[in-house]
Amino acid sequence: MSASGAKPPVIVLVRPQLGENIGKAARAMLNFGLIEMRLVTPRDGWPNPAAGPAASGADQVLAEARVFESAADAVADCEQVYATTVRKRGVTKPVVTPEVAARAIHAGPGRSAILFGPERSGLETDDVALARTIITVPINPSFGSLNLAQAVILVAYEWSKSMDLAQPPETELPPPAPQEELEGMIAQLDGMLVASHFFHPPDRTPVTRRTLRTLLTKPGWSSGEVRTMRGVLSALAGAKRAKD
User: Is-contact 25 51, C-beta < 8 A?
Assistant: First the structure.
């Protein structure tokens, strides 16, 4: 459940066509903490051997997926039903973004279901008519093409934003090196480059030095990184002396 106590929404795939797309939708769901998938008359039947590899480990979602004969049957136990579509298809209902829908699901009592249509054509008018609210993603009006997994992941992500999902641990970065250390490294490199006649032609020397300084001062060099680089330069100098 969410922090508000609301149950996670049910993801309902209406007449999905490809097993691979069902698997990818399952992967998208589990990434964001959703595990209940319902399938309405999948074209190639169920279970589908193509779904497993595409799910990339979201086996729990596929194993517990339930199949229904109609969209109405699939949402019969849900108090709130949302239909995802890029257009209203002649049905007059409230239209919200995934973010607004997620807030309403978290705040509302009971169970919610979110309908997603077939890959090729999307939900039919009768499917949309089952819903109380339409979810539409703000999208390029001249190219409103989302695949099934993309649509699921957009909605699932908005749901997850209010969840206490584990976050990757933050890596503590070392403090930047003092300017004095950085200047010492630059001076060491400059001296080696002068000795090797790197700066040529002479009239380009100021520009080349400025380019090198810009390159070396862009990152936040740590003291350890500066010491490493100076060790590299010292090794190069030692190799040059041995060769001479």
Answer: no
